[in-house]
Amino acid sequence: MTTTQNPYQVFAVVVTYNRLSLLKNTLEGLKAQSHLPAHTIVVNNGSSDGTTEWLDRQSGLQVIHQENVGGSGGFYTGVKAANEAGAEWIWIMDDDVLPEQNCLEKLLNYSSQSLCLNPIHVDQHNIVSDEERWFDATDCSIVNLHNRSFENGKKIWFRNLGSFEGMLIHRSLIEKIGFPDPRFFIAHDDLIYGYLASKHTNVAVIADAIIRRQPVVKSEESTYHYDYYYMYRNLWLLEEYAEKNLNGYSGYRKRRIKLQFFYTIYKIFFVDKPKHKKKALSYLFQAYRDYKKKKAGIKNG
Length: 301
Prior knowledge:
Spore Coat Polysaccharide Biosynthesis Protein SpsA, Chain A, 2 domains, 9-stranded mixed β-sheet, two-stranded parallel ribbon, 13 strands
């Protein structure tokens, strides 16, 4: 496949934290694109595994070093920098994804139909992730349509949420919805960004634009942080955005979110069955406390 500079002013934004080997693969994937990004920005969230030193030795990258403000803080910084530098399109991704060689080209083929384009995600076993989901603002839940459009052979379909694993977004849309919200730290930040985008464009998923998720070995501690703390604590931020865009359901949302708290306890004991259930529960109870207090940013303690 011939590689050429694409006619669009596309900036790639990659956020990284302590995953140097995966980051190298992601950057190689960007260099191999059939339509090359015009510029690549790497936001390094205070990595301590040699990423900082390695990035400082690279050429052809714009590197921004900052303290660890989570994925959401990293995407805020990167999207803001790309936008201020004049990017027409911004291609947003984590450091653990690997775009197939024609991924950007395939996304841009649909640029006349959407200002927010998303690839499908495939794991190491070639299993496609749930790409047809819907954010229900009445109760802050996610409706999963189980990839019906993909299974029926559709090349493009629409949803109202996003993913920072390959989202391609136009600057005119950013002018309307702003930059990613850094308050989330991690979890739900990309969902909401896609939800905001859906108010101004059809958020599209492109079936033949493929990003592969690299295998990641997660520590038990990081799993507890994500699954039992940030995923629940950040529900107050989902409530905030939902209320702004669909008011009148506040009491219903709060009841449903409280039920989710008890359902997560059930999951810990009977579904997930983590090695240290007491620790998982402590994270969840801290999440509930911080949800009530509307805390944001990095978890304390």
